[in-house]
Amino acid sequence: PNRPFIPPTAAEKAAQQQLNGSINFETSLLQGENNNLPTSLQFGPDGRLYIADLDGAIYVYTIERVGPQNYQVIDSEFIYAIKQIPNHDDDGTPNPNITTRQITGLLVVGTANNPILYVSSSDPRIGGAESYTGEFDTNLDTNSSTISRLTQSSPGSWGNPVKVDLVRGLPRSEENHSINGLALSPDGQTLYAAIAGSTNMGAPSTNFAELPEYALAAAIVSVDLAAIGDSTYDLPTLDDPTRGGAGQPPENDPFGGNDGLNQAKLVPGGPVQIYASGFRNPYDVVIRKDGRFFTIDNGPNAGWGAPPHDEGPGGDCTNALRDGGDSFGDGLHYISGAGYYGGHPNPARGNPQGVFGDEANTAVPFALANPVECDYRQPGFNGALAMWATSTNGLVEYTASNFDGDMQGDLLAAGWNSENIYRVKLSFDQNDVPTVDLSTVLFSAVGGSPLDVTAQGDEAIFPGTIWVASLWSGGIRVYEPNAPAECSGADSPALDEDSDGFSNADELDNGTDPCNAANRPADADGDFVSDLNDPDDDNDGSNDMGDLFAIDPFNGTATHAPVSFTWDNDGSNPGGLLGLGFTGLMSNGSSDYLTLFDPGNMTAGGAGGLMTIDQVPDGTALGGSNNQAYGFQFGVATDTSLPLTAHTRLLNPFSGQTPQDNQALGLFVGRGDQDNFVALLVAANGGVGGVALVQEVGGVTTSSQLFGPDAGIAPLGSTVVDLYLKVDPLTQMVQASYARDGGTRQPLGDPLAIPADWLTADGALAVGVMATSSGPAEPFTATWDRIDVWQEPPGSVGAWTAVSANNEPTARHENGFVQFEGKFYLLGGRGSKPVEIYDPASNQWSQGATPPLELHHFQAFVYDRQIAVVGGYTGVCCDSEFGLDHLYFYNPASDSWSQGAEIPATRRRGSGGSALYDGKFYWVGGLQGGHGEPATSFAWFDEYDPVTGQWTVLPNAPRPRDHFQAAVVGSKLYLVGGRDGSDPSIFNATIAEVDVYDFATGQWTTLPANANLPTPRAGTTTAVLGS
C-alpha cells in the first residue's frame, strides 16, 4: 500500500551510502503456490517448504529453482489435520458450524526421513465490537489455543498424518491475538510458545470485548515435552460457577474460558510454566544458533484500552474496565533468561489475591504472585533493543555466509504495515549485555502485508535465500542473494546502479539502498519514479496537489457499489493507502496528499481490524480553514438510478472521555475537496455529545444541525455508533441517519439538496471519513470499524414463475446453461449429452450436437457468437475424472463443437467459475481430485486472452471455492455460493461470503457480512438481473 514518507536527513543519506554495495538481493514471486492467507512458513529438514494458512490448512511444497529469480512449485501436499480440530463456544458447548482453525505458529523439526511439525492453533473467530447487531462478543472459545504435533504415518507422505494435541486449554483473546510462534530448545526437550494477551495495555477494555488477562496469557510459556510424551495435557481450569456442580469439572473441559470464569490455571510443577512475561502480542520467537532467545512484541493502540487501575510495581493492579490508552511501537526483546518481564501487565499474575479473592479457586496460586506484572512499562523504555513504529511480526535468524558472512547471526523481521523486511545486527559484551550495531531496512515495498519471514542456511536447499509470506496477497516472495554490486552509491539522477529502475538519487531521497535491487521506494503507478518525487502518482494527468483520488487512475469511476472495507485480517486486501482501501484525501488544492496524514500516528487494520487515528489534530474542513488532515476518501461511480448509502461504524467514540470544543469524527460524502461535502459527525456538543450534520457548497456552510440528548441522540458511552448518508442520484438529495449499539436506525433532519455536479462532474462521488480537534482542543483518539457503500434495492423484488415446456430436455447435472439471442442452451453434464436448446417463443426444446468428449463441472458463457467452456472435468464418475486440457466452443449457427487453446497443465481443474470481461476470459476457483480421491479446492484466478492466446495468473481470490458460478456486473466479478471441497466435511463447507474482484483496481474484496448468501449452498446457478 502507498504510504507517506519523511525524507532522510543528510546524515542518514551518508550512513546509507556507507552500506552501499555490500548487500544485494534480487526478488521474485514463487510460482504455482496456492496459499490464501499465509501466516507462517519454514523449510523442513526434508527440503520442502511448509506454509500455514490462517484457516488451518498447511501446504507442503516441493520447489525447483528453474533459473535465476525463478522458483516453481513442482509438487504439493495439503495437511488438514489442524483445520479439523473441533471448535467450541465460550461456554464449552461444541460448535460444529465453525469448521476452520486459526494457525499463527508453525515449527518444522526432525529429520529428512521423519519431519515433525509443531503447530499452534485456536478458534478462528475474531471478536471485538464489530458485529452488525452491535454485540461485541462472538462467543469464541477463549480457552481454544492448542499446541499440536504432526508426524507422518508413511515415510515421505502427509496423506494421513498422526496428530497429537500436546496442550489444550491455553488462552486466546476476543480479538485475533492468540497463541503464536513456537521455538524448540537446543536440547529438544522444551517447546516455547508465544501466548498473546487479551487486552491492549493490561486492563479489560471495550475494544477487546472487556476480557481480562488470563493466568497463562501475555507470556512465553515453556512446555516440558518429555513430561507430556505422546499424551494430551488438558490444562486444569477454574471451578466455573455457571457450569456443572460445585467441585465437578465442567463438561467439555478444558474448552470454554467463559470470559475468565473457566480459564486455565497455572499449576506449580506442571508441564506448562511461565518462562517470560509482559508481552501484549509476541507474534514470533527465535532461538539463535548461539542459544540466545528473541521475540517481537506488538505495542498498544491508542483508544483501545489503558493500563490497569492502580498499576505499578507494588502489585495492587485490578481488572477494572479502562478504555483510552496510547499507541507505542513494536519492540525487539532479548529474553536473557527465565523471569524476563517485557512490560505488559497481567493482573492475574501481578495481584492474584486481588483478582481472584479466594485461594481455593484462583487461577494463580497466591504464592506465585509476581508484583512486577502490575507495572506498565512503555515500549522503548521496557528493555526493547529496537523499535518499529508499525506492526512488525515474523522473526528469523540469517545464518548463511553470503556477503562474506556480513549477515550471519543478524535478525530479520517482517513489517506488516510498513511492508519492509528489517535487518538487526547485535553484539554482546562479556556480561551478555546486547548492543544494536545496525537496524535498517533490508527489503522495502514487499507488498501484500508480509507477516512471516524465513531464511536458508548454507547447508539447506536454496542457501542464502530469504522467503516472505504476505498475508493479504497470499503470495510468497523469494529474495535471492547476488554477488555484491560494483556500486558507488553516488547521489545522481543519471545512475541506477542496482538496475531496479529507480535512479540512485531517487532511492537516496527515499532512504532506500541504490545498490540493492530488493530495496526500492514506494511507487503507486509503477513508472519507476517514487511517490515522493512523482508529481502524479496514478498517471491520470492530474497533479497530486489537486487530485481528489491521487492513487486511482480512474478517479472512482471504475468503483461500483457495493464497496466494503472492514480491515479484518482474515478478509481480503482492500489495497489503497495503508491497505485501507482509500485512494485519496479530502483535498484543499494546495497540499500533496502524502503530507495530509502520518502513518506513525495511526493503526491501520491491526488486531481488531480497525482504523485508528491516535492523536486527531485541530485541522478541519468545516468553515474556511480548509486544513483538514486524515480526511481519507475513495470514489464511487454514480452511474446508477438507485440510491447509494454510505455507512461507517465508529467504535466507542471519544474512548469514554468527555469531548471538548469542536472535537468530532464521522463520515462524509461530496466532491472530494474541502469546500463541497455533507458530513455526519459524532460531536462534542458541549461535552454531552451529539451528532452534527453539516453541509458546505462552494466553501459556504449551507446547513448546520446538531442533534443531542434532548432529541434522543446520545452517542457518548456507546460501544458502536453507525452513521449513514443515503444519496439519491435522481432527486439529488442526501438523507442522514444514525444508530447506537445495534438499535433502530433514526433519520436525522430533512433531506439535504446537493448540487448536480457532485454526482455528474467527475462521474464519482467521494465517500470518506473525517475527524477534527478544532478549537483547538486536546488531540483525541478516533476509531472506525468499517466503511461501506451499497445500492438500495428497488422497491419491488418480483416473484418466481414456473415454466412448463411442451417437451422435456434430457436430465443431467454439473452442466452449463447459457442464454444467447433469445434462446437458452443446455450443455454438457455427466455422461455424453447433446446440446439442447429451449425457445421461449415456441415453448419447445430441440436437440443440438453432442460434444467431442464428456464435459461437466463447468460454467459456460458467450464469446464471439459461440458458447465457451473454460475448464471443467471430463471422464466417468467417480474414479477417472480429470481436468479438461483444452478450451471448447459450441457454435449455435453451425451446430458444431471445436477445440480451443490448451489449458496450462498445472492449472487444470473443474467446478470453477468463469466469465467474460472486456474481451478476455476469467476463470476462478475450482477443484482437483474428489469423487473417490482426496480433493483440493483452489482460490486460483486465471486470465486468458483469446486474441493473443496468452494465459496470465492473477491474484488469488480471498478463499478457495468450488461448485459455484461467477457473474460480472459493471467492472466487477462476483463469486457467489459454492463450497470448499478441500474440507472433509464437504457438505458442511458451504461458503456464505460474496467475494468481489474489481477489474479496474486489480483488487479482491469481500462484501460485508450482511450481504452474505442468506442460505449458503453449493452447486448453484448465478445470473445477473437488470443492469
SSE blueprint and pairings:
Layout: H1 10-19, E1 25-29, E2 38-43, E3 49-53, E4 58-67, E5 70-79, E6 102-110, E7 115-122, E8 145-151, E9 162-170, E10 179-184, E11 190-195, E12 219-224, H2 225-228, E13 233-234, E14 272-277, E15 282-287, E16 293-297, E17 330-335, H3 347-350, H4 352-356, E18 386-388, E19 392-398, E20 410-415, E21 421-428, E22 434-443, E23 450-455, E24 466-470, E25 476-481, H5 504-510, E26 563-565, E27 584-585, E28 602-605, E29 610-613, E30 632-637, E31 644-651, E32 664-670, E33 677-683, E34 690-697, E35 700-707, E36 720-728, E37 733-740, E38 746-753, H6 757-760, E39 764-772, E40 782-791, E41 815-820, E42 823-828, E43 836-839, E44 844-847, E45 860-863, E46 866-869, E47 873-874, E48 882-883, E49 886-891, E50 896-902, E51 913-917, E52 920-924, E53 927-929, E54 935-937, E55 941-945, E56 950-954, E57 965-969, E58 972-976, E59 995-998, E60 1003-1006
Parallel strand pairs: 9-13
Antiparallel strand pairs: 1-25, 2-3, 3-4, 4-5, 6-7, 7-8, 8-9, 10-11, 11-12, 12-14, 15-16, 16-17, 17-18, 19-20, 20-21, 21-22, 23-24, 24-25, 26-40, 27-30, 28-29, 29-40, 30-39, 31-36, 31-40, 32-33, 32-39, 33-34, 34-35, 36-37, 37-38, 41-42, 42-43, 43-44, 45-46, 46-49, 47-48, 49-50, 51-52, 52-55, ...
